[in-house]
Please model this.
Amino acid sequence: MSKAGDLYGQSLYDLAAESNLSDEILGEMELIKGIFKENPDYVTLLSEPSVPKNERLKLVDEAFGDGCQQYLLNFIKILIEKGLLREFSACQKRFRKCYNEEHGIADALVTTAVALDEAQLKQLTDKLEKISGKKVLLKQKVDSGVLGGVRVDLEGQLFDGTVKGRLSELRKKVDETVI
Model:
């Protein structure tokens, strides 16, 4: 994460938590992050110094003014004024991290060769919650390159039970033995 993203994301979180708006602002930040990701030209326009600043701020008011919490709207305007709008994603990640820590939530990513069904996802989530002692928000990624098995990244801790991971470990042990 960037220093600006950490600083600004933390500041917005502190303000939101103090005002009991962290749930609302987190949801809105995730929506806006998606809008920015799907519309990179819009972010470019809002970051373009040749477009007068008051025009760029007016565009933000028109786009988000009615459906966005005022603190978040002002936050986006500050990022535009400071030339840091491209850091919005890093700010959102920091905000999410602060939110998760305060609410006892852990993000996890499960990678499998084929999609897991709802029952399997529930069973895995329950197991990860027992391991972490937190409520787990599990995202799923399908990657045929893992060949089989399951790889889970739980807050930076990697559990690799994939065929690819096992083959890699085996190859490493053979190399160590031969050398």
Summary: The chain has two domains: 3-100, 108-176. Helices lie at 3-18, 22-38, 40-47, 53-64, 70-81, 88-103, 118-132, 163-178. The two ends are 39 Å apart (CA to CA).
